[in-house]
Amino acid sequence: MSVQPCAAQRNLFDFQQYGPREWSAKLAVDRENSFFFDHELDHVPAMLIIEGALQAAEAAQARSDRAARRPGHAVWTSEFSFSFHSFCEFSPPAEIRVAGGDGWEGQWALTVTQQHTAVSGGIRVRRSPRPERSVPRPRRHTPAVHRRDQWLAKLAHRHHPENLLIGAPRQITPDHQMFDVLPAPEHHFLRTGGGDQRTMTELVEAVRQAAVTGMHRQGVPMGHEFVLTSITAWIDRPLSRNEPVRLDARRVPGERPRHTGLFCLLAPDSCVGEVRVTGRIVPPAVYHRLRAMNRTALAQGAR
């Protein structure tokens, strides 16, 4: 059974059920999207894969649990874990498969594949009811909170300042920084379908920006890339765009070349979520070599 895409599945197409609690979809890659493709890329960005995977789980949950549609109730992604095994190329279309999920605390195993080769796997999404008193009374922001700096956007690997979701960092120690999380501007792509709640993708993108900004502030030259290998995230309640949210960012000691960052979401002063990001920092020559190896492996898999 095929399902037509809707606003909540804007990065998916050909959504189909192939088992009692099993669904599949193709990842839609719109290279004209000014958020995911803020600047020129030679592969499908990790943020688009994460967004598509979360959309697939949410769509599957809505179809598998009628209770999700009850008046006065809503569901939201509260947790996920994702491992990246290779880059995702522009073609053929990557396939997202979700399996499992039961009741309000629906847990879904997700796998993203391309040409029968795993691109990413091991993601788990929990779908939970929204607590009635989950969002505090909105607080007023000062205009300075929303200022988006061109130089900071460059450090965060964003060409367009409107895509910047973090404020200027406050250095605590060499391995500890604090960032304000800026709400997406009016009419921004991230606001479509999310209402007044910050989507999980929006929060994770703020973490990604904080991670690469911290990387460059610690002396890594521009042109080096952070190649994501794994990410886990959880939040214990929805976060409104009207409430102040900050990132407490710390680098976790470990063996190189792996780098791990731990990011606590503070709203306003209590930890309401956490994101853990692990990846490799590579210079341009190594990055181009990795990209060539990935394209070769995909071509060989198609034979």
Provide the low-confidence segments as ranges. 1-8, 130-145
Task: Please state the second-level CATH architecture of the largest domain.
Answer: Roll
Helix content: 10-25%
What is the domain tally?
2
Q: What overall form do the CA principal axes indicate?
A: globular
Query: For the report, how would you describe the main beta sheet?
Result: 13 strands, antiparallel
Instruction: Give the CA-CA distance, first to last residue.
Output: 29 Å
**Total helical elements:** 4
What does this structure look like?
The protein has two domains: 1-132, Roll (Thiol Ester Dehydrase, Chain A), CATH 3.10.129; 143-303, Hotdog Thioesterase (Thiol Ester Dehydrase, Chain A), CATH 3.10.129. It is of the alpha+beta class and 303 residues long. 20% of the residues lie in helices and 34% in strands. A 13-stranded antiparallel beta sheet has the order 1-2-3-5-6-7-4-10-13-12-11-9-8. The longest helix has 19 residues, at 46-64.
What's the gist of this structure?
With 303 residues, this protein is an alpha+beta fold. Helix content is 20%, strand content 34%.
List key phrases describing it:
13-stranded antiparallel beta sheet; Thiol Ester Dehydrase, Chain A; alpha+beta; 303 residues
Which SSEs are present, and which pair or pack?
Elements: E1 2-3, E2 12-19, E3 22-27, H1 46-64, E4 75-84, E5 95-100, E6 106-114, E7 117-129, H2 150-155, E8 170-173, E9 176-180, H3 200-217, E10 225-235, E11 246-252, E12 258-266, E13 271-282, H4 284-301
Antiparallel strand pairs: 1-2, 2-3, 3-5, 4-7, 4-10, 5-6, 6-7, 8-9, 9-11, 10-13, 11-12, 12-13
